[in-house]
Amino acid sequence: MHPPSLVHKDTTYSLAHLAPRVGGFQWLGQDGQVRQHSVRVRYGDHCYSREIKPPEVLGPDDVVVAQGPLRVFCPERHRYTHDLVQIVDGLLVKPTTSVALTAAEHNCHVYRLYKSLGGQDRYCVFFTLRRLPDLPAGGPTLDLFVQSAYVRNNQVKVVKNDPFGRMAEKVLAGKGLF
Question: Which domain of life is it from (predicted)?
Fold first, then answer.
């Protein structure tokens, strides 16, 4: 999915920590049964790139990550990707973590606050959670795809909040999150 690294302005940036992987967690369902869930975690290129919008043009040092729309490597976004992995891993370690459903994009959202000059910035992580088709026994049952992650200084409009584990339970039961 991603190259192992990118070179930007003579600096090599590793992307190895964003490689797909499988994790798991236990969840006590609403039926009183404890279940082990296996989750495939993937990261999109929006986590370390930004869109080039006209009238902006490609610079000589820009590294193209994706076409249509044109996206280039962004060292600022990349700087937070190690935190991103910790945040996503944290959902599996502590599935009671509250996750918001966004109003605009109909995806899931968690964030981490950082103190900034004159206020607080939010490192926002946007992801989808889907049931995987039937796989061989022992394979992952859920797909968590991180669509994007970036710093913003305003709140995301949300529809509702639920623990991550409850969202997983709903997805596996074929129930909609919205």
Answer: Bacteria
